[in-house]
Amino acid sequence: MRITKLCTLFSFLFVLLLMSAFAQAQNAPSLPGVQSADALAANLFLQSGATGMVLVVVRENQVFYGGYGETAPNSHQLPTQDSVLRLCSLTKIFTTDVLMKLALDKTVRLADPLQRFAPPHTVVPKRTRPITLADLATHTSGLPRELGNAPRYSPHFTFPDYRMRWRWLPTQRLHSTPGTAALYSNIAFDFLSDALQSATHKQYAALLAERTLNPLHMRNTTFFPSPAQCNHLLMGVSDEGPCATTEATAGSSGLYSTATDMAIWLQYLLRTGGPGTPAQSPVAQDVYILPSKLANQKGLDHAGEPTGIGLGWIHILPADNPSHIVEKTGGGAGYETYIAINHSRRTAIFLAATNGSVDTHLNLFNAANKLLLAVAGLPPLPTPPPKLAVRRQHRHHHR
Length: 399
Prior knowledge:
Distance between the termini: 74 Å
Order of helices and strands: HHEEEHHHEHHHEHEEEEEEHH
Shape: globular
Helix content: 25-40%
Number of strands: 11
C-alpha cells in the first residue's frame, strides 16, 4: 500500500514537472532568427552612406555574418568575414579584459595608483588623490581626451608613443579630481596598457596575446598587420594613410581584426562559446560608476544616455530592463565601429563601417541598437534627447 502511494506521488510530481516545462516553453519568447539581421542591416547600410559595412550577430551559438557595399570605392567587391578591419576604440575593451584578468589573479588591484607603474623618476600628477587604474579604465582620471594632434602624415593610431606620453604626463594639471567626473580619454587607456606592461614585465602586445587572443584563437587580431592583411583592409572614400604597425596606441585604439575573430569575441563576451571555450568573467562588464554620482560626464553618450560606466563599457537602461545594453563605440581612420550586448536574450552585435562620399548624419550607434533589440525580439530604446538625435558624429577621432 505504501509503495502504491509513493508511486502515485512520484507520478503526480512527474506530471507537474512536465506541465511546468510545457508552460515555460509556451511562455518563452519566439525570437526572430539571426538571419533576420540581414534585411535590417542592408537598410541601415543604405541610410548610413558608408562605402562598406560588416555586421556580426551572435545569439547563443548561432552566428550571422553580413557584408554590404564595397571593400573600397569602385572595388565592386563585397566585404567578407575575412576582410581586415580597424577596431579603433573597441581596442579599449580588450585592454580592460586584460586588466580584469590581472586583478582577479592579484597581479594588480583596480585601486592601484598609476604612479606605482610609472617609469623611474616620473611624477604622475594628482589632484586631491592619485589617479588609479580604475580611474583610467572608467574615463574618470581627470586626463584630457588626447595628448595633442599627431604630426602631419602620421599613420593612424601611431601617436603618441610610450616615451612621448610619459614625458608629457608630469606637465599636466588634471581637469578634475580623479573619480569625480567623466571625460572620455584615449590617452588614459594608453597609460593603462603601459601600467599592465609594467606590472607583468612583458610587452603589452605580448601580454594581450598571451592572456586573451591566443586562448581564443583570434589569429587575425593584431597590432602588427602583415602585407597580406593590409591588402584586405576595408577602405573608405578618404585617403587615411598607410596600414601600419599600431603598437604605440595598443591600449586605446590600435587593434586590427576580422569579422571571423569578432564572432569569437562576441561569444566570449556573451559566455556562450560552449564547454572548454573561454568565457569572460561577468565582473569585467559590471557597472563601476553611476553617472548620477558624478559632477558631470562628457563623451560617453554617443550610443545613448549612459546609466552605468564600466571598465571601458557603457551601460544603457537599468540592468533589470530586458532591453538593457552593454556597449562600446569606436571611430577613426575613416571607420565607425560598435559592439553592443543584450544579456537578457544572449544576443550581441559587432558593426564596422567605412566612410562614404556623403555624410547622412545617421547616428550609426543608435541605429545599431535598434537592430540588436529587433533581432533580440525586444522593444527599442526610448527616443534619445534631441542633442543625440541630431549630433553629427565626427569620423576622424577615435572614441
